[in-house]
Amino acid sequence: MEAELKQKRLVLVSNGEPYKHVYQNQGIKQQKLAGGLTTGLDPMMQEDNGLWIAWGRGEADFEVVDQDNKVKVPDNDGYTLKRVKLSEEEKNGFYYGFSNEVMWPISHTFISKANYKEDYWLNYKQVNQKYAESVLDELQEDDLVWIHDYHLALVPGILKEEKPETKTSLFWHIPWPAWEAFRTIPWRKEIIEGMLAADFLAFHTDLFVYNFLSCAEKIGAEVNFSEKEVYYQGAKTRVESIPLGIDYQKFSNLAQDEDYLAKAKEIKSSYETEKLIFAVDRLDYTKGIEERLAGIDKFFEKYPEYQCELTFVQRVAPSRTGIEEYQQMKERIEKKVGEINGKYQKDKWQPVKYFYGSVPQEDLLPYYKAADLALITASIDGMNLVAKEYLAVQDSGVLLLSEFAGAAEYLDSAIQVNPYNTEELADGIYQGLEMPAAEKKERLEQAQADLKEYDINWWRDYFLENWIDCYE
Ligand code: GDG
């Protein structure tokens, strides 16, 4: 199996690109991009040397490509990145519109945030066609075409129509909702049909798989729930839950690195409080940032002995800045941070330190290490890699994790809370801070053993093996 796989070329298709090129100091510089999908898949592509097709959104992206829109990354040396060019109209309709105002809210069961504009849908179809054509132009016999995420649900269907023998799979990085939510999309049938053209589909958790199978049944497919197989229009699709892992070795090695340890120490001492709590999220309503701030407010009120003894550091990475909903949320978050600080601040102590801006992953890691507790309070999340990364570098910290993050299905050793229950959140923080050292160690060891076993390499191999099995 291993040898057979090695002979095949992996063609990875995603909306987000792993690297962008920008103008800097009169030259062009390559920048690695943050985000769950790309941080997870880039190390794998560097090893496999395949082809990655994605939207080129960097200001200098098309300055560095060849006539086929290709460039080698990282640093003109690794694997091939082929960039797809989107017009302003396509960007607004496909990306900001249908992907982020329909697919994103509905997949996360935020029905009231969806905006079902026909124009968005037409653009979504057009751009999916563009991606599919970009794949078809490159396709070689025996290629494995691995499509990623909710932006590209129609690509498997277009590929199968044009070239039925193409081997395709799709990994869905965000939740899949119950039919009650999904059925509100006017084009629900076309979307599921597009996905069912893939030979293999995978989600992070069993719940998302079950939800998807139920939706497939509702549009008229024959579903075998125990075998997780769907039969539709004469074709079979296998569906599996395969939780994305992290590059555990990289994180645990870094946790021993002296420079990195020194940076963590520096961060800890700069806050001048005994305890530090850390959170980092893309600015998104699914990440539960507002619920978390309410929990922090409650915590300082209910446990005043921690005032002046603890700093909460919240980093927020800009995201989808073109959508008004996101701009309004940013204002609400910043207002709440101001309120908490105004309410509890004493002398030099400020309870919440808030930073807005994206940083490279390397800069986040010392914060992970410095924090006594990490707060992940997503109101719903496909997986949440930050939770895993925090645990991988810790030797005495505690993770407080929303029971609604996909990661909760796999991390029993974290303190799990319902982020909408403000009291429970405040009590969870207290429980984490007061936890005896031996219990912390035991919980960490359990989590780290799992993260090591089910790491990014496991995920890739397990995905590929299950996919290849579909053809036997
Ligand atoms: C989607 C799903 C699912 C680097 N700099 C920053 C930053 N990073 C890195 C983190 C982590 C990744 O980005 C963020 O991963 P998440 O999993 O938390 O989040 P999403 O971007 O929402 O990703 C998610 C994932 O796909 C993978 O399938 O887990 O459920 O929504 O590796 O180290 N992250 C942030 N700010 C930075 O400045 N927040």
From TrEMBL:
InterPro entries: Glyco_trans_20. It comes from the Bacteria. GO terms for molecular function: alpha,alpha-trehalose-phosphate synthase (UDP-forming) activity. Pfam families: Glyco_transf_20. One of its GO terms (biological process) is trehalose biosynthetic process. Belongs to the glycosyltransferase 20 family. This is Trehalose 6-phosphate synthase.
